[in-house]
Amino acid sequence: MNEPDADSPTPSWQLEFGFFDADLAAPTPEQESARAPIPEALAAEDHLQEPPPALSEEELTHQCRQWLTDLNLPGAAKLVRVHWNARLQSTAGFASYPSWRIELNPRLVAFDGQVQRTLKHELAHLIAYHQAGRRRIEPHGPEWRHACALLGIPGESARHTLPLPRRRVRRQIAYQCPSCGFVLHRVRVFRQTTACLRCCNAYNGGRYDARFKFHRLENPPPSE
After folding, report:
1. According to the model, what pLDDT value does residue 131 have?
2. Of 20, 50, 155, 192, whose CB count within 10 A is highest?
3. Tally of structural domains, the chain
4. Domain annotation covers residue 113
5. 122 and 46, same structural domain?
6. Residue at 221 is within a domain
């Protein structure tokens, strides 16, 4: 796999990954089963702590660059950026590829070790998709799990159980696969043509296939 070039123009497409609350409904069938949330309500819900200097955006970006350099990905190390995003609520972290941008929830500062864990969780997404090239992979599939192991978090869960503020959003838009019949509920419409990942993996080696293009339902069934 060729190294990303810091001087190359940014593509018009992006892949985005979020580290979501395990107690919220999974958006895709590939997500792992929900785990019970931590019962104790912590004060971090309403009070954002100022990240200490050791957790500044510059220091966290430097850490990611060092990890990528150690994994022989110097090109990616030049591109990666880490930012705090106070708008995140129940989502612990967020990553975008190929912009190599990671966003973290400032509430993570209240939980011991969770900034580093979430940072590695999101960076693993970027590494997995970079190494996969044009091949379509599952967000939390074997490629991501392998990248997690390389970063020192083997067995990482796809979803967190931190007591972060929750905002339940009704997913009123639904798409259906014409082949297997799977119904995918979403909050927003797809901005580009999208096909059923399960069928593309099963019948076309993980590559996009128009036979499995999602069709929007006019009268969708209610989401669970």
Report:
1. 94
2. 20
3. 2
4. yes
5. yes
6. no
Q: Angle 43-48-52 (CA atoms, 0-180°, nearest 5)?
A: 115
CA 183 – CA 177 distance, rounded (Å): 7
Cα radius of gyration (the chain): 18
The residue to which tokens 């708008």 are assigned: 87
The three-state DSSP-derived secondary structure of 81-95 is EEEECCCCCCCCEEE
Q: Which amino acid is it at 224?
A: E
Rounded CA-CA distance 51/113 in Å is: 13
Do residues 122 and 19 touch, judged by C-beta distance below 8 A? yes
**Dist. CA 109–CA 128, nearest whole Å:** 26
Residue 167 falls inside a structural domain: no
Under 8 Å between Cβ of 126 and 43: no
Give per-residue burial for 147-164: e unless 16+ CB within 10 Å, then b.
bbebbebeebebbbebbb
Structural domain boundaries, residue 130? 15-150
**Residue 158's pLDDT is what?**
86
Whether residue 82 is predicted with pLDDT greater than 90 in this model: the reply is: yes
Same domain, 44 and 97: yes
Whether residue 122 is found in the same domain as residue 203: no
E-state strands within the chain = 15-19, 81-84, 93-97, 101-104, 173-176, 183-186, 215-216
Residues 22 and 117 in one domain: yes
E strand or H helix that includes residue 117? helix 114-132
Using one digit for the tens of pLDDT, what is the confidence trace for 23-41?
444 333 333 222 223 223 2
